[in-house]
Structure formats: structure tokens, C-alpha cells
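Section 3.1: Structural characterization of target chains.
Under the original work plan, the team committed to producing a structural model for every single-chain target entering the pipeline before any wet-lab resources were allocated. The record below documents one such target. The sequence was received from the expression subgroup and is listed exactly as submitted; it comprises 356 residues.
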Amino acid sequence: MIEISKKIYKQSFERKKKIFQEAFGESSKIKYFPSPHVNFRYRTEFGLLKLDNKFSYAMTLNGKKEPVKSFLIVSERIQKLMQSLLNYINEFSSISKKLFQIEFQSARNNDAMITLIYHRNLDKDWYDQASKIASELDISVIGRSKKQILVVGNNYITENYKFLNQEFTLRLYEQCFSQTNPYICDDMLDWVSKNRIKDKKDIVELHCGLGTFTIPLSTLYEKVLATENSRPSFRALQKNISLNQRKNISCGRLSGRETIEALTQVRPFRRLSSINLREFEINNIFLDPPREGLDQYTRDHIQEIENIIYISCGFEAFKRDLSILRKTHDLKELAMFDQFPYTNHIESGAILRRKA
């Protein structure tokens, strides 16, 4: 398991900085954002292992399940819940029976939910015991099995994010992607907001998820066209737009490529029938693609857009995409965000402007 300390974290962070500098050179344009060295992860999951007739949390290491007794990288709220929940799992057979995965998610305001995933149908006994756990631990409990979902409380937690001395609320729904490290998320939101190329025209956002960047972007641009292909995330996005009472965001359930096809009038989409694309003056694009980066079609067609903001969770794809985009755009700002301390994962950000 990971050895946690300020010293080891600093060494890990410096290694990532060196990799980043080797890729892009020593540049005053590069900003580096370290994470807290403990209690930075607000979402995690475990398997289950039975040892000496007692259940334990487990993670897979080198193909083998290993017991987990403590996990200092997760939030203090999750750490406390881990032990409390384990006591209930060992006490109540209706909770432990055919349970194979546990997912924790918390917020900085101590809001929390736990998802329990089973290889069996859940019954009234399960619901009664889950309700007891939810009440005593002050959390939401969600039970999942094949073709079955039972919710005690809410199917989301509420997190507040900050940028430019502003704050906004986001509901992080179960089964939707959300940022695991809220401190680095604040840094990314603030960096984008401060360093974007100021432009009064509109922006299109691809792969927008449940709206983490969409809400701040709506305060920075005249209009936002936000698209997301995942049905659960798209529903969450619509709810978060309503929660924040943003009137200048239009959203559609499209992939990144489909969005570009719609904007370039390659083909119409019924999913955009309520949106008049001619009302948009798109001069800016925000990209936060999956780890594999941009597909070639999207990469080729965004080269006509004036300003590009690119957040990446896949470093190799980021380097590849940037090497191509820099043929048509100048790199104005660059950042490294340590979203996942103690790992080799590098989160990156770039702001580009089309060459004159």
C-alpha cells in the first residue's frame, strides 16, 4: 500500500514536475498546483474480503486481494465511515450477504453517500437495515444489484466549489463522473477563469459531465453550448443548471464529434431541435475529454476556433493533441494539476490562441 508522508509526497510531486518540464521545457508559462498530501480523495471504492470470519475492505494489488485497514488519502469523513460501516457489515447478514463492492463519496461539508453493490436481489430486510445505517451515520445509502436500485436518502451529495472569489453549488450524482480531489478542482476552475483569453463571444464545451466547468463558464461568456454523451451525466447537468439558475446555458446530449458535426452543419440532430445554433457566435471551445484525448475528427475541426481551453486527464494524449494544435495555435498558458498524488497520473491544462 501507499506510504503517506509530506516528504514522500514532495518527492512524488517533484518527479511529476520534472516529467512535465521535460515534455514542455522550462517555461514561465507553466503553473504547478500541488495537492494536500492527506485527506484529498473524496471518492473511493473497495472490494470485500473475509478473514477469520470477519469482513475487511480490500483492494487488488498485483492481481491479489489485499486487506485495507486504513486509507489516509481519503477524506476524514470517509475514514470515519469506513470503520462504522464495517461494524454494520459484520453485524447484519442482510447487509453483508453477497455484497462485493462498496463505494464511498463525500463532500467538504460532510455530506456523504455509500453505494453497496450486490450479487443478489435486495429485500425489505436489506432496506430496513440500510435505513438504520443511514439514520445513525447521517448519510445516504444506495443499494444496487442487477436491474435493481434502492435509495435511502438522496442519490447525490452536494459540494461547493470556488473560483475568482465566487462559490457555486453542484450536486454530484451517484454513477456520474465527478472530480475526486475538490481542492485541485478549485485550482483548475480558478486557473481557467483567470487565464482564459478574454472574449465576449460564446463558448462550446465538449464532454461537460454534470457541469463542473459549465457553471463557471456561464459567468465568463455570453452564452454556453454544453454537450455530454452520457445519459446519467446529462440528466445531472440539467439539474445542476437549474439548481444554479443559469439562463445562458444550452445543453445537448451529444458526443464531442457529434457536437462538431452539428456546429459545422454536417448533419442535423433531433437532440438539438430546441436549440437554434445560428444564435451562437462560437469563438471559444472548452475541452475535457476522456483519457484517450481528442478523436482525430474533433482535433482537425477545432483548429478553426479562435481560443481553446484544454483540460486533460491523459498526459500522453495531451502531448499528442498539443503537438498538433500548436501548428495552428500559440500556447499561451500551461498548467500541471496533481489530481492524484502518489501515482504517475498527471492532469494538465492548456490555453491556446489561433495564430494570426
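The chain has two domains: 6-38+178-354, 43-156.
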